[in-house]
Amino acid sequence: MSSLKVQLTQAAAPSPPSISFVERYKVAVEARINLKHVHRRLQVVAKLLIVATFVEDALRMLFKFDQQQQSMEIAGWTSPALHTLLPLLSLAVQSCGALLVLASSGVGGEVGCYLLLGWCVWHPFMYGQAGNREFVLETATISGGLLILLSHLLLLRTKAPLLGESGPGAVGTPARVQAVGRVLLVSFFLSFALSLAHAWAVSLPLGAGDGPGVWGRGTQAVELVLSLLVLSLCGLVVLGMKSRHVALLLAAAVFAAAVSVTAVNVVTLLLHSSDTFPVEDTAGMEGVEADAATIADHQRYFFFQSMSTVGALLLLVVHGPGPLSADEQDGPLEFASEKTVA
Questions:
Q1: How far apart are CA 197 and CA 224, in angstroms?
Q2: Among residues 120, 110, 132, 77, which one has the least CA distance to residue 281?
Q3: What is the pLDDT of residues 8-59, one digit of tens each?
Q4: Which one of 19, 43, 126, 174 has the fewest beta carbons within 10 angstroms of its own beta carbon?
């Protein structure tokens, strides 16, 4: 009799709603991969990468202090005292800021973000690179990642001592900081897209005569398509539409490009270690040649700067575009690794 009641109860129970293919796929992925652990590890990786260029630069100040003093003189600082004080300031600000960002998820992490953001503003002027567009825009991209991290740290706390008490204004401040971070995050890629568009425009035959040929037209087409693609991806990030996916794609592209370019440069320097090479991508040193060791030092700096760009993009993947976006107007995706600090 009891078994008959169980059967009748099961028959009367409503059938579960049908699950879409996407939902079934998500369940299958979560069953195979612990997404909470992946998210937590990605947070750590993103933090390590975004401070990579600051740590590398601080270590260079420590172990190559005499060269940094010469760099200050080349940058135009005439006072011998500044040749010593500016590298010491660089060492202190970058090392302290990076340690605070890595070690704290509270006020210390905020202070670390502010220190590194201030350094990003000052850095181009200190080295006389304010006119170097690529240098400035890549620094702006790293600043965007720091702002995304800062907005997340502000949201983790019930009070924001550096910005005032919590409440509607304090809740809105992290969202606005995050939105500004997204705009700065795509600075370098916008420059890249516009450079491709410019190269495509100047290569067009504007008068009578022979055209660029089949190969030239093919190059123009590739430049145009790439520039439109990058501009579209940047627009998605700024608007917050599929921005996590786009940021992950851009991070993979920057990582692959940095590793491949660095590998080629390392092989070239090893094969021609006794030669001199032109100093590139450095304002004020046009036409100057340096030995292989100096060029290797420059290439290492640019590599770690690219890694920090990857970290900035991964921070957007981890923390999302925020409420001022098309994707997360109703609130960000929640993960168990995101704990609220009381």
A1: 6
A2: 132
A3: 444 444 444 555 555 565 555 455 555 566 777 888 899 999 999 999 999 9
A4: 19
CB hemisphere CA count around 104 (13 angstroms): 17
Evaluate if residue 101 carries a pLDDT over 70.
yes
* Least confident segment among 177-181, 308-312, 330-334: 330-334
Strand partners, 276: 291
> Taken in order 281, 282, 287, 293, is the CA torsion positive or negative?
negative
Whether residue 99 is predicted with pLDDT greater than 90 in this model: the reply is: yes
Per residue, the 3-state secondary structure of the chain, as one string, reads CHHHHHHHHHHHCCCCCCCCHHHHHHHHHHHHCCHHHHHHHHHHHHHHHHCHHHHHHHHHHHHCHHHHHHHHHHCCCCCHHHHHHHHHHHHHHHHHHHHHHHHCCCHHHHHHHHHHHHHHHHHHHHCCCCCCHHHHHHHHHHHHHHHHHHHHHHHHECCECCCECCCHHHHHHHHHHHHHHHHHHCHHHHHHHHHHHHHHHHCCCCCCCCCCHHHHHHHHHHHHHHHHHHHHHHHHHHHCCCHHHHHHHHHHHHHHHHHHHHHHHHHHHHHCCCCEEECCCCCCCCCCEEEHHHHHHHHHHHHHHHHHHHHHHHHHHHHCCCCCCCCCCCCCCCCCCCCCEC
